[in-house]
Write a structure and sequence with these properties.
Helix content is about 30%, strand content about 25%. It has about 625 residues and is α/β, with parallel strands linked by helices. Bound molecules: 5'-O-[(S)-ethoxy(hydroxy)phosphoryl]adenosine (WTA).
Length: about 625
């Protein structure tokens, strides 16, 4: 079998990039040939952005888990596939070789089958960062069930919304989640969610993570260990079409409820592996660690699929970066001699704030590549990462991509292309980023800014938003004809490198987590004394962006503190703690256009203390309100 194209030098990058753009079908067909297919595809790409109608490796049949696991057994059966570092330092590391992981996945897959799960069924996973989460993801894929992992920090309400949208037949959960010195109930949240009219759920499969007593409903609850016990370690991999659904992952948009981004089997597989190998320059026997949670796309593509498809050793960490202290990440890097380390700017900033020289206590000499993802990285954090963690010798890959893109799109290649603080820099082969102005005209040349779009289809791109294809079309493919619109603004520097500045829509990026303003507003409005609200992002030293809420309320006798506490509790209940507003003010009105649309642009400026650059406010429905809000903001 041939191998994925590995870029080794700048000249190769340039040449391969050109080939991939000139003849994408030839290029991606070659990459796809490196995998094992049950039936070869008839055509590499059949895509139009008008539908959108996206098809890669048309007619091909495969199972992604055979490519993640079975394919490696002959050569690497005894190599560690999955390494797990627990939250508690007195608990042991767990390791699964490729053989062991395959057996565990098969056992779980058989247990799912026994519980009535068949190809096409949706299974929600709401779990801590334990190896069983990876096993459950792959077990779903093994039998063609569509997995939808929900980050275990979401509330019961948010979970219920997702269960209902996916019409999930099963929820896989755990009794508890360990995060630092907290033990967080997990099953309780799922129980509450299921009670919110989630009638599609027939079974809750509960992984035991250490609690003593737990409420139990014998009609739907089943223990993981009971169901897997005695199950065969063999399970035939279900044949999937390239375009059969692999997973749904919910993410926030600028309007309404979260949307289920749909990824399918063939193209996602090819791109996850291609991008992993090249971006991290993974070499045989390296230990790779991505600190993301599997509840987000980064965990899907770069803890599970990318690394396992590539035969790598991938590590999962159960805990948080600051427990038992702020040296934990570096202690783990030292302990496992981590070669590639991939994290979020928020984590870097949070650790910097705990002490700039803490990492000096650890031996970080194994590191070969440092990565960041999820939000823009500021120069100070980039420099610290470079100097203190990488000793100015380890290239940083600032990787730009999205839930919708499935894989990394724009990034330096370590040791191959140059790096520049804050710049994601260069597109991977097959990816053609362009900047457009608000009318959709191409912004050409260098040293320019614009809206970031992608010109051509690529294998791991979003196929649809689950149950609502029209929403997929209007969000990504209608604004700028013939292009995929990212929702981000970007600049291109003198030498053509790309810097992604941030969202241009009503999405706030808090600690690398996407939060829709409309979702937070809806939650705040549930508070009985709130009449109307508007939330915007503002610069936050650790989180990148924080959430600022402007609220119109009824007269209240509550103190500011009491009231704010209640609003935060409401948001935590409706969405989860990650969406809690950082700052709040009560106002008597909100700036609106004559058609009644809230002018968040103005509120964003006010929240950021940029009072002098509000632009023209005279056309507002209520121009005087702006001054009033400014005075209020200044007074706190
Ligand atoms: C932002 C995460 C600047 C961006 C993989 C994007 C970034 C959103 C970067 C997607 C980066 C991600 N530099 N901004 N390197 N990476 N973003 O769907 O606004 O959780 O649109 O996917 O994060 O977030 P998502």
């Amino acid at each position: 079998m041939s191998e994925i194209t590995q870029i080794n030098s700048l000249s190769e990058y340039k040449e391969i990039y050109k080939q991939s753009i000139d003849d994408p079908e030839l290029f991606w067909g070659k990459q796809a040939e490196t995998f094992s297919w049950k039936k070869k595809w008839e055509k590499v790409c059949n895509c139009d952005f008008d539908g959108p109608n996206i098809n890669w490796f048309v007619g091909g049949k495969l199972n992604i888990t055979e490519n993640c696991l079975d394919r490696h057994i002959a050569k690497k059966g005894d190599q560690t596939a999955l390494l797990w570092e627990p939250n508690d330092t007195n608990q042991a590391t767990r390791k699964f070789t490729y053989k062991e992981l395959l057996s565990a996945v098969n056992q779980c897959a058989n247990a799912l089958k026994k519980n009535g799960i068949v190809k096409g069924d949706r299974v929600i996973l709401y779990m801590p960062m334990v190896p069983e989460l990876t096993i459950a993801v792959l077990a779903c894929a093994r039998i063609g069930a569509v997995h939808s992992v929900v980050f275990a920090g979401f509330s019961a309400q948010a979970l219920a919304d997702r269960i209902k949208d996916a019409q999930a037949k099963m929820v896989i959960s755990a009794d508890v989640n360990r995060r630092g010195n907290k033990i967080i109930p997990v099953k309780e949240v799922v129980d509450d969610a299921i009670k919110m009219n989630c009638d599609s759920v027939e079974t809750q499969l509960v992984f035991r993570n250490g609690s003593d007593e737990i409420a139990w409903d014998y009609t739907i609850d089943k223990w993981w260990h009971h169901e897997l016990d005695g199950m065969s370690e063999e399970c035939e991999a279900t044949e999937m079409d390239s375009e059969d659904l692999l997973f749904i992952l919910y993410t926030s948009g600028s309007t309404g409820k979260p949307k289920g981004v749909v990824h399918t089997c063939g193209g996602y597989m090819v791109y996850a592996s291609f991008s992993f190998i090249n971006v991290f320059q993974y070499k045989e026997n390296d230990v790779y660690w991505c600190t993301a949670d599997i509840g987000w796309i980064t965990g899907h593509s770069y803890i599970i699929y990318g690394p396992l498809l590539s035969g790598a050793t991938t590590m999962m960490f159960e805990g948080v970066p600051t427990y038992p202290d702020a040296g934990r990440f570096w202690e783990i890097c030292e302990k496992h001699k981590v070669n590639q380390f991939y994290t979020a700017p928020t984590a870097i900033r949070a650790l910097m704030a705990k002490g700039l020289n803490i990492p000096d206590k650890y031996d970080l000499s194994s590191l070969k590549v440092l990565g960041t993802v999820g939000e823009p990285i500021n120069e100070e954090a980039w420099n610290w990462y470079n100097e203190v963690i990488g000793k100015s010798k380890v290239p940083i890959v600032d990787t730009w991509w999205q839930t919708e893109t499935g894989g990394i799109m724009i990034t330096p290649l370590p040791g191959i292309t140059d790096t520049k603080p804050c710049y994601a820099s260069y597109p991977l082969p097959g990816i053609e980023p362009v900047l457009v102005d608000s009318e959709g005209n191409l912004v050409k040349g260098n040293n320019v800014e614009g809206l970031l779009c992608i010109n051509k289809p690529w294998p791991s791109m979003i196929r649809t938003t689950y149950g609502d294809h029209a929403r997929c079309k209007s969000t990504y493919f209608s604004l700028y004809k013939g292009k995929y619109f990212t929702g981000d603004g970007a600049r291109r520097d003198e030498e053509g490198r790309i810097r992604v500045i941030g969202r241009v829509d009503d999405v706030i990026n808090v600690s690398g987590h996407r939060i829709g303003t409309a979702e937070v507003e809806n939650a705040i409005n549930e508070h009985p004394e709130v009449i109307e609200s508007a939330v915007v992002g503002f610069p936050h030293p650790i989180k990148g962006q924080g959430i600022y809420a402007f609220m119109i309320t009824d007269e209240t006798l509550k103190t500011k503190n009491e009231f704010e506490k209640e609003v935060r509790a409401k948001v935590t209940e409706m969405i989860g703690p990650i969406a809690k507003p950082d700052e709040m003010i009560i106002v008597s009105g909100l700036p609106k256009t004559r058609s009644g649309k809230i002018m968040r642009r103005i509120l964003r400026k006010i929240a950021s203390d940029e009072f002098d650059s509000l632009g023209d406010v005279s056309t507002l429905l209520n121009p005087t309100i702006v001054q009033e809000i400014i005075e209020k903001k200044k007074s706190i």
